[in-house]
Every structure is written in C-alpha cells, then in structure tokens.
Amino acid sequence: MKPDWDKLMNEYADNPTALVADVDCTADGKPLCESNGVRGYPTLKWGDPAALEDYQGGRDYGSLLKFAQTNLVARCSPSNIDLCDDAAKAEINNYMAMGDAELEGLITEKESVR
C-alpha cells in the first residue's frame, strides 16, 4: 500500500484545501496518533482535524483517489462560510457570537444527552 499512498500524497501536495500525509506513530507523531485512537498500522483517518474519522475504503490507488476526490473537498464551515447556505451561515454566526462559557454550557448539555 505504501507506493499507492505516496502517489496520493504527491497528487495532493499542492492542494490548498486538502492534506494527505503520513504520520510516524512510533516517533514524533506518537501523541497525535494516541489522541486520535490509532492503535494499529497502517491506520487511515480523514475529515476535520478536530474530529477525524476512520477510513474504511479500498487501499489501492484508484480507491484512495476516488475517495479523496469525493470527500477531501472544501465544505461549509466557519473558515469556508462562502460555501454555506443562508441557514448554515446563520447557525455558524450564532455560535461564533457566543462566549466561551455559553458554548461550554451547550457542549455539556449535549454530552449529557448521550
């Protein structure tokens, strides 16, 4: 799988909105891997850096490229507000206007529902 992964990293090397990278979980990357639940190697993760998800697709270049082209695109978010519809913009702006204490309260409330 390593050559296919290297090929995909090269394909996305200059992409302004997507990062394809590898992390050595036995060296300097160990804290990053531990904080993201990496227990076996190779593990592929994708998504928002604050909430990475496990990649479950094929590991050949074609499968990896198709997944990347479909999923590693800019999406509506606070840093890409121009990609949002009016309702999403309003929701994001509402959260961004809140203070830290109010946001923490909402998080605590949502976590208690689980």
What is the topological layout?
Elements: H1 2-11, H2 30-35, E1 45-46, E2 53-54, H3 61-71, H4 86-97, H5 100-113
What features would you describe in this structure?
It is a single chain. By secondary structure, the chain is mainly α. The chain has 2 domains: 2-71, 3-Layer(aba) Sandwich (Glutaredoxin); 78-113, no CATH class. The chain contains 5 helices and 2 strands, in the order ααββααα. The protein has helices spanning 2-11, 30-35, 61-71, 86-97, 100-113; strands spanning 45-46, 53-54. It has a two-stranded antiparallel sheet. Strand 1 (45-46) and strand 2 form a beta hairpin. The model has no long low-confidence stretch (mean pLDDT 88).
Q: What are the main properties of this structure?
A:
2 domains; globular; mainly alpha; Glutaredoxin; 114 residues; two-stranded antiparallel sheet
Kindly identify the CATH topology of the largest domain. Glutaredoxin
Helix percentage: 40-55%
Beta fraction: under 5%
For the record, what CATH class of the largest domain applies? Alpha Beta
Estimate the mean pLDDT confidence.
88
Shape: globular
Q: Which strands sit side by side, in order, in the main sheet?
A: 1-2
The CATH superfamily of the largest domain bears the name Glutaredoxin
Cα distance spanning the termini: 38 Å
User: Which consecutive residue ranges, at least 5 long each, have pLDDT under 50?
Assistant: none
User: How is the main sheet built?
Assistant: 2 strands, antiparallel
- Number of DSSP-assigned strands: 2
Q: Structural class given helices, strands, pairing?
A: mainly alpha
Element order: H for helix, E for strand: HHEEHHH
Counting H and I runs of at least 4 residues, what is the number of helices? 5
Identify the CATH architecture of the largest domain: 3-Layer(aba) Sandwich
Radius of gyration: 17 Å
Q: What oligomeric state do the depicted chains represent?
A: single chain
> Number of domains in the coordinates?
2
